Structure formats: structure tokens, C-alpha cells
């Protein structure tokens, strides 16, 4: 079945430094979504990328979808303590069992040192 | 409602006990999903409903897991004869339309039920 790998698993940065997490799928994806989960919280939708090579920005966050629609990245510029949490990518592809499932990566846990 | 709600928020069960976890999706949302999130892992798909129809249950780990959504709104995930490996956070998510056939739908997650099986 579809697998989504995400690296790194953990990242500790000094406040103000940049941060990047990478996501790679074993299969071509219909789209990729990014979620943020704060400690003790639930995943919150950030963005969805659909087109090959797509780049989207949300303030200090930049999201990219690879040309082959199998990989993606999230880059945060000048991290702040409010960026702390776990960032998940989730690839959407047909499950073969009746739905377009979201397959989540294991996430990258970001710690920001003030 | 304002968001997806789940109850209970925490559940401690003895091994072998049956549990029932409830999800109230956002009012009017057609699609409902259940995920299992083990500690330090990403959510893993369990099952999907479109209204009252369970269209995909390919992620349910065993026949001890059963989900229903009889009236197309509230859903219940039932785990029979719980085992220690069932300990996890169970997340429910809903989306407005057909998460199963119309992708690109944003899924809104509930706070989850943290299940601990002793």
C-alpha cells in the first residue's frame, strides 16, 4: 500500500533559525496536505497542494509539491516559539477499497529554543 | 456545531473490556473518518463513512473493531475485548462532501479520545 516517509523525526532550532521538513511517497499522489499538531492537541489543517511543482506560501511558511507529485516540503523562515509542534504531511491517493485515503507521515516534531 | 467533538476524552479500560467511542461531526458534514494515532506516530486511517454508508473499512486492524453511523451524523467506534496494543488516541474527522470520491476536501479533526488499556 501507499507509504509516506517524513524526515527528520525531530528538529531542535534556535528561535529565528529556519526549519524544513521533507515528505516522500512511495506512489504518485492526487494531492498532499500538511497538518500541525500542538502538544496534546489534534491535527489542524494547514494547506493542500494539488498541482505538480506547486509552491504555496503562508506568511513564514512555504510549501512545495514535487514535479512527480511524490514528494513535498515545508519550510519555515525565522522560527518563533509559536511554531512548536509536530508537522505532518498526508498524501491522498485512491485506496482501492472505496475511498481516497489520507496516509500520514510520522511527523517532524519541532522544538524552538528561545 | 462549532467543531468536531469526541467523547470521552480519556478512557481507561481493563484488558478484555469492550469500549465505545463517540464522534459528533460538524453539522451537515457528509464524510466522517476514524483514525488511530499511536504515541509518536502519525494518524492511521481506520474507516470512512459517507452519510450512513461505511464505504471503506480497510484500515480496521481486526474484527474486534467495529464502527457505525446509523443516521448519517453521530458515529461510534467500538472495540471489543480490548488489548494493550489498542492503546492510542482515536481521532475522528469530518469533511463537508465526499472525502471518498471527491478529494481535495479539508478534513476537520476532533480532539480525540485517548484510550489506555491496562
Summarize the helices and strands and which ones pair or pack.
The complex is a heterodimer of chains A (114) and B (118).
Chain A: E1 4-7, E2 10-14, E3 19-25, E4 31-37, E5 44-49, E6 55-58, E7 61-65, E8 71-76, E9 85-94, E10 100-104, E11 108-113
Parallel strand pairs in A: 2-11
Antiparallel strand pairs in A: 1-3, 3-8, 4-5, 4-9, 6-7, 7-8, 9-10, 9-11
Chain B: E1 5-7, E2 10-13, E3 19-24, E4 31-37, E5 44-50, E6 53-56, E7 65-68, E8 75-79, E9 88-95, E10 108-109, E11 113-117
Parallel strand pairs in B: 2-11
Antiparallel strand pairs in B: 1-3, 3-8, 4-5, 4-9, 5-6, 7-8, 9-10, 9-11
Number of strands of chain B: 11
> What is the helix content of chain B?
under 10%
Number of DSSP E strands of chain A: 11
The biggest sheet of chain B, with number of strands, parallel, antiparallel or mixed sense and barrel status, is: 7 strands, mixed
What is the beta-strand fraction of chain B? over 45%
Given the structure, what is the number of helices of chain A? 0
What does the largest sheet of chain A look like? Answer: 6 strands, mixed
